[in-house]
Predict the 3D structure of the following.
Amino acid sequence: MSRIEPREIDFLLHDVIGLDALLRRPRHQHLDRGTVDETVRTAARLAEEYFAPHYRAADSHEPEREGGTGRVVMLPEVKRAVDAFAEAGFLAAHHDEARGGLQLPWTVVQACFAIFQAANIATAAYPFLTIGAANLIDAFGTEEQKRRFMAPMLTGRFFGTMALSEPQAGSSLADIRTSAAPEPDGSYSITGTKQWISAGEHELSENIVHMVLARIKGAPAGVKGISLFIVPRFRVAEDGSLQGDNDVRLVSLLHKMGYRGTTSTILSFGEAGRCQGFLVGQENQGLACMFHMMNEARIGVGLGAAALGYAGFRYSLDYARTRPQGRPPEARDPASPMIPIAGHADVKRMLLQQKAASEGALALCLYCARLVDEQKTAPEPAARERAGLLLDILTPVAKSWPSEHCLEANKWAIQILGGYGYTRDYPVEQYYRDNRLNPIHEGTYGIQANDLAGRKVWQQNGASLTLLAETVRETIAEAARDADLAPHAAALARALETVAETTRVLGRERAEGRVAEMLANAVAYLEMMGHTVLAWIWLRQALVARAALADGRGDADYYRGKLAACRYFYAWELPKTETQAALLRSLDRTTLDTDPAWL
Amino acid sequence: MSRIEPREIDFLLHDVIGLDALLRRPRHQHLDRGTVDETVRTAARLAEEYFAPHYRAADSHEPEREGGTGRVVMLPEVKRAVDAFAEAGFLAAHHDEARGGLQLPWTVVQACFAIFQAANIATAAYPFLTIGAANLIDAFGTEEQKRRFMAPMLTGRFFGTMALSEPQAGSSLADIRTSAAPEPDGSYSITGTKQWISAGEHELSENIVHMVLARIKGAPAGVKGISLFIVPRFRVAEDGSLQGDNDVRLVSLLHKMGYRGTTSTILSFGEAGRCQGFLVGQENQGLACMFHMMNEARIGVGLGAAALGYAGFRYSLDYARTRPQGRPPEARDPASPMIPIAGHADVKRMLLQQKAASEGALALCLYCARLVDEQKTAPEPAARERAGLLLDILTPVAKSWPSEHCLEANKWAIQILGGYGYTRDYPVEQYYRDNRLNPIHEGTYGIQANDLAGRKVWQQNGASLTLLAETVRETIAEAARDADLAPHAAALARALETVAETTRVLGRERAEGRVAEMLANAVAYLEMMGHTVLAWIWLRQALVARAALADGRGDADYYRGKLAACRYFYAWELPKTETQAALLRSLDRTTLDTDPAWL
């Protein structure tokens, strides 16, 4: 099976991300490196024992609606897996001890979660959404809501969802129509239809807590009139017991190319006029609240994409090391023995792309998780604010770059296995199918590009980008002092300057009100930024590897691999930013000027 | 349904490829534009009536082995489709009238074939392989073999396969082990196992003619000891009647991610020691013979990839024109109406990528088909030779570029449909899964890169590349005279010079025997060449479009669409060749220097 090597998590957490500094903070003082490593090992064990074995089976036996009862049934292995996850405390791991949590840093929770995602991303989606929904109630709910709805989510009695999209409003949340009418008891009567609700129906938990966006009657049009509600599948009494149906109906299950183990649903709320919802946070502030969950979810999507990329990388690496085929280009004697395909230059290229994309993406997402911790526990308010600024600009990158480039990684994993990789006897085609969802959900690739190039780059007079550039320059300065890494440092400095120049050109468009022109090629901006950020992430890893090799630490091959992937990234990938920047600086109007009627 | 617009075929055949000149040649003098157009319309009608309707169903009900009989059964619609194809004469269309053919140009046959591939590529694979196998017998078989085996393939009584790969020898044909022992009657006894044999078993035809590569006992090792054999599933008597089993056994069916309607098989030959084969061509010349079929098949794979790309393009275009979602970036009023997503710049980018890739790939593959005709019917021997030289260098490009970039096109088709595109209720996910095979079969992407950068570019002192460059320069000269296209002409001239410079650098490596260094980054060379060739193909189309618009021909929007796609290609795609060339010219050693043990 493929799994995330504990060695890799260890390297990222302790050597690259600097987890140990976090552990010294009051919130985490009960932890040390040993307890963290033990937690990671537990995750690896559970992933291997409960998640990985049914990865294929849950794909070929998707959840279905039972004829008689209308219930959604699925392989029993899924419930055993999510139960094991809950029982080990992973649903509550980062929560306060007072609430039954372990007060683990979010970074550790995310590192563990990636291990589950690599083993079985579709099954991991159930706890993924539950954790997100619980975090949302934790952030904005009342104490009563936390007691009634969040507490059972931390133990796995209740699961959660996020219910945003509607059939007529996918990416355009401004256009949702689900309505909420105030009731005398302070609750709201919810009416509407939601679509693409992952984990929207199942029998894995006693109850499902839907976090629903809806409009309170009379609210302003657009995103300023959206509120957030808790809408349980079954009503919950004061004492926590279930009080029967809350008028939430499964309209239908959606059947996907991949991610088949996760139910995707259309749900109707309030068909019988008795669907009860509870306002979370302020009226009309629903989108802002939901973005709390969405930003986390976006990084989580990137992490999942990275995990799938990594799983394909390790699988195809094992295959390439053992599959003999062909001979070196110089070999003239056809009777000479074949070599393992890992010896062919182009197979090494495909391995290096996968390693660079997946390990780089994993590092980026865990770095973002570290920023979430920083926002929460940094002693200085200024440090918290800086973490928030970095997170703002890195979130669209952490969501999109892995989704795009780890999907590509999975493409190369299939390619390395050749015909075998194209069959359903090997997991790589499933990684590829599963990963194809990631550039779509939680805000498409295009939406992320607009978020970055249309909003995040400019906020607070560009404070996020300025801070990111300063942070990258620290790494450049460090690497410039290392003779072997100095050329990379110089290349990254140029890329950073290219980003700055390009941003200035787009800033002029923005200043003059040419918003469409500014955003015409936003995905090129996202790619340019993403590649620059990943180059920085790789240089950070290379610095650690160089130091480890210089110190003569064991496992030299591991560090040489890090340096090889870094070298690959700077030779094959980073130069692409030049082409993207040239397109952007030319303010190319091809997309704007093309009339769809011509196509 | 998605299909190739007759308008597009018309434009490519008559305006871009110059089919009409072909029709004036003696072999085709019974044809005119009207008969060709009628043939294309027939293909479109059959594709729509017989091929398209079961595209999805054949994916969800793949062929399976029947319990009792061991026969491979599949949806009856597949047989009805291939029968209709045969009855309309498409299996024999390009063959001599004396053999029951229509003496159609290969270009027309391929244009029609793309229509079938766009409708249902998995069902089209059965005639695809039959046509290829028949062509192989036509080129190298004896008159007796043509009568006994080829003639029934032209009517659809027999179908064909190509049986090259073995479990231990996929890309490395030098290592095949299937053996052929001469029998007193002049036939050979065949023993061995073949894998990945598409259409290797089915009940669609009375017999299956396998074109098998095997080693005659005592043959030299490697590719110089491979011979080609006709091995029928059932023996065929002198009078053409079937004489029972020929000891060819289905070992198992392989289950693929896509292309599920086409059986993929493992076959054993001669388990009982009585599998009869017939040598085709000379002993030990099998690989050269097979390359006749493979080169055709490679262009056919490119054509299929283009057809899938095109199908996804049209489907997502229709969707984008009718799905309302979001507002222009300038729109501030959330109550203003939503616009069709085709109006969003990034959706137009995704449409333009698909159009540029799929229509460009279609044009390239039909241009290659035109060269096949030229080889066959050009009056001047020198013209035939030139066509052969161009085909040599263009075949790896025509195989690979569409396979890679029309797969990417299908990725964007899914993206445009968003969540819907990821469900199995829409065909785009199936296009994507089906197309994923194309970079693998008939020589992987890496194999094509090595063929181009290791062989084709250098053959006859670079005669192929020189001739290609001359051909491209003619288009450049023409476009340079058009003020609107002159910038594209200049960009293409630079790209061509970049290819030349890069080739010189690699040539020095080759001259000094550094073969591994020359080939280390061969896929970057293939991509650079492919993008340059496609830029040329687009400039040719743009020239036609410009002339048509200047003449005031109808359908102006169609021509504007061609110019928009050309503009897209030059703005977004062609500049990538600079990055590839820089990598190649630096003789980057990352892939060579990386030890797989480090990864």
Remarks:
- Residues 160-284 of chain B form a domain with the Butyryl-CoA Dehydrogenase, subunit A; domain 2 fold (CATH 2.40.110.20).
- Chain B has a mean pLDDT of 96.
